[in-house]
Here is the input.
Amino acid sequence: MHIATPEESEDLMQKYGIPYAKTIRAKSYPDLLKASWALRKPLVMKIISKDAIHKTEKGLVRLNIHDQKELREQFEELTLLAAGIQIDEYLLQEQREGVEFIVGGKEDLSFGKVVVFGLGGIFVELLKERSLRVLPISADDIAQMISESKASAFIRGYRGKKVSLEKLVELIYKTSELLQNEDLLELDFNPVIASGEEIAVADARMVLK
Amino acid sequence: MDDNLRKAMHALTNPHSVAVIGASDDQNKVGFGVLKSLIEGCFFKSYNCSAFAGNVYPINPHKSEILGRKCLARVQDVPEDLDLAVIAVPSIVVAQVMRDCAEKKVKAVIIISAGFAELGEKGKQMQDEIIEIAKSAGIRVMGPNVLGILRPRISLNASFALSMPEAGSIAFISQSGALADSVVDWAIDARYSFSLLVSLGNSADLDVSDFLEFCLEDDQTKAITLYLEGIKDGKKFLRIAREVTKKKPIILLKGGRSSKGEKAIASHTGSLAGSFAVYEAAMKQAGVFMAESVEDLFDLAKALSEQPRVNGKNIAIITNGGGVGVLTADYCDMHGLNVVELDPQTISKLDASKKMHPAYSRNNPLDLVGDALPERYEIAINALLSEKYIDGAIIIQTLQTMTKAKEDAEVVVNAHKLFPNKPVVCVFMGGRYSAEGISVLRQNNIPDYNDPLKAVKVMKVLCGVI
Here is the structure.
């Protein structure tokens, strides 16, 4: 059992056609800068450290980086803030705006692989707002599953935020294929960020057998 | 169901000959209880006891006679083909007894004896050995560590349950023998009636799914109730339950909901998808209803075996008391039933009868007002049930001085005969002075509850809302 490296996770998402926010990692500022040229702005910068699991609480996530000047500033601030923490890498990701969902899966001892969908982000465990299904499932099952969750409010539109049901169904369906065909114990796509027709996995965590 | 399983199930549920291996004359021993239950139908007499018509053979090498029956030394001494052997000997001799059964070519075996996998690794090894012997002889095994099997219609009581419930159309398959035993006792007075009762014990061979397959084909069974704590082969269960629920309802009471002892690895999903949550999802996908309590389990099953099921959730509430109508509407809303708006045409029909109270509610819940006599109920119930857009009715009677409980009940019974495809559930609220009405409803298989919440939960299941 091991936790998939970012490269392994990306490979798997690519293999199943699961859209994810483009991400690069680097250890130094020059490398970060070079990599940033290939990414759509604005960007998010995070510190990857095995000492820091909840990055948001420690201020180790920076948003809205538009240009080289901001990249430099944020890099320096983050490095300063992370004094005392071992910095493994810096991560740059295309910033996505929208509603945050969780799409996950695991293997249940008696029923086999299951897929979970719900509201994502930092309140996942507090709200436990989710619906789940034992695999395999059809696209119709997925639509039904979404409609059972309170998160479905965003399909109809809530507070000016609206996401595409079709895109969401597609992403969950592809995730269910990944879950069924690969040797996975657990999988978290949290958050999956969606807005209108756009959808992408912003953070993936997979536990491989 | 494959042929091998069908044959074994036939031997278990409709045996012509049964041997009790480990029959005893000691009243405190299981081997006595099982033998007595088989011969007389019951250990303790109830209104439903009668002797089993098949041949019963006590097996005990140390006794010559028990309960007036000649004892045989070994199962091989039974002078005819043997359908069923019930084993109630200490666990260490079960393997030898199973070899005897193999030699005798017994068709099915129930191992009541405990002391196997439930005790740990050593017991598990003994259990595996016994199942191996049975398998190579083509014998299917129920147990070990079970209460036994009861088939009231033919007075088959191959168990140490304390009595026999009434014959009916509910099958009860329980992972807990003690729960099944208590349900038997309770059912006798509560008048729950059964097509089959089995306890699963360790399910070393025949498991819950095998019994589900049997119930699907069993003409006596209309609804299946389950008490389960865990399911070993969840995928098999889902595959079979999906097939069964297309034809017959399954209601499950799940024990062990808390997530103690569950190990989540390192993810949000782990904490979102605890084993009970997965259970609920799996049951929903298989079309299995979940009960919340033992009473709920049998209330739902009873209603499902007596009332028609519909594919719709538009419910009419007819009442002679505003408050109970409001409560019922609240519960409908909570449980996904639609208290449907009445069509102006329906109201016109009611108005045209000229029998409605001037202050009747003219909407759903249809409040007929406290002084409603049977005639007013009759007009209202028939008018509403005849509407295509109404799928079923909850009929409430509160007690006023002029209320005629018995006649009101008869009105409901007649309406149900007129509209046999629409479920009807009653709330005849009260006690002593509604008893006559309640008894009419019971005799005519109309579910009736004192608490509107129970009525709504039952209606929900009849409407197929999971």
